[in-house]
Specification:
It contains no helices and seven strands.
């Protein structure tokens, strides 16, 4: 079995969808704030301030975010 080689530059991106009242929808969750923190691999403890923060727009997109291939993140 061959070991995986991390990508040299990782760019993460995604879309946040949510709720309309009590109903789950696939509509963008505009106005929501997403924060991403680097965390310790063993404990999950946050390692400082958010490395990415964005208020979600009308399209629901929260990125792009340049990430380290050797880091662990909490969204």
């Amino acid at each position: 079995m061959q070991a995986e080689t991390p990508e040299p530059q990782v760019v993460l991106n995604g879309r946040i969808v949510g709720f309309e009242g009590p109903a789950v929808t696939n509509m963008p969750l505009a106005g929501a704030t997403l924060e991403v923190f680097e965390v310790a691999a063993a404990s999950g403890e946050r390692l400082g301030a958010a490395v990415h923060r964005k208020v979600v727009g009308a399209d629901g997109m929260w990125g792009p975010m340049r990430a380290r291939p050797d880091a662990y993140y909490e969204f």
